């Protein structure tokens, strides 16, 4: 990974932040995108100090196709050959049943989790294809594989991420560009706080009674995927805490 250029979306917290730390420790050059400038700058300053790595930060909302294209087009020449793209930006909103769904929540999830991933992938992969190498790692979810009550639109968006990953495998076959979809189960990050719009007490109940995954656990898995030899492609990984058997079966004490 030393001097490899890695673009991480949703880098200001959770899995994205953990990926930044692990790849920085390995000597990668990082392009970090998120919507919160203060969090991005704090993270980048910490990584530079701890690991002496190069970091570029940019406040980019992946839902804005024009902003994504402009951010890629404005990269300095020494930064525009992205080797690894980690499509991590994503979110969930609410747990309402489908007949009580909040349309604003649906649109935010669809725009971020599906369209945002597409915009970034479309902007980055042409250069990879031209060079004959690159790696796209998409962060999906067990929710895209198995239904649970109230998971409706969020699960649908992550199922779309999984199918997009499979189609990327086919479309990019023969180009030298590898694709992987990582499906985490229950991970204790800001995910539930975002889902419940800042209700920390409600969010904390999601992780009580068992040991969930950490963001670092998922980031280590992503790093493992990214560091396989170029003739090896890990297409899909489902990663859960030991206490979790399925989307709805979790052993709690």
Radius of gyration: 17 Å
CATH class: Alpha Beta
Low-confidence spans: pLDDT under 50, at least 5 residues? none
Number of strands: 9
Chain-averaged pLDDT: 95
What fraction of residues sit in β-strands?
Answer: 15-25%
* Tally of discrete structural domains: 1
Largest sheet: 7 strands, parallel
Distance between the amino and carboxyl termini: 40 Å
For this structure, the CATH topology is: Rossmann fold
How many helices? The count is 8
CATH architecture: 3-Layer(aba) Sandwich
Provide a brief overview of the structure:
The chain has 253 residues and is an alpha/beta fold.
Question: Can you walk me through this structure?
Answer:
This protein is 42% helix and 16% strand. The longest helix has 29 residues, at 103-131. The chain has a 7-stranded parallel sheet, sandwiched between helices. A two-stranded parallel sheet has the order 7-8. Helix 1 (14-25) runs parallel beside helix 2, helix 1 packs across helix 8 (215-226) and helix 3 (65-73) runs parallel beside helix 4. It has one domain: Rossmann fold. It has helices at residues 14-25, 37-51, 65-73, 103-131, 152-171, 191-195, 200-204, 215-226, and strands at 5-8, 29-34, 55-59, 84-87, 134-139, 177-184, 187-188, 213-214, 236-239. It is built from 8 helices and 9 strands. The radius of gyration is 17 Å and the shape is globular.
Keywords:
253 residues; alpha/beta; Rossmann fold; seven-stranded parallel β-sheet; 16% strand; globular
Question: Helices and strands in order, then pairings?
Answer:
Layout: E1 5-8, H1 14-25, E2 29-34, H2 37-51, E3 55-59, H3 65-73, E4 84-87, H4 103-131, E5 134-139, H5 152-171, E6 177-184, E7 187-188, H6 191-195, H7 200-204, E8 213-214, H8 215-226, E9 236-239
Parallel strand pairs: 1-2, 1-4, 2-3, 4-5, 5-6, 6-9, 7-8
Helix pairs in contact: 1-2, 1-8, 3-4, 4-5
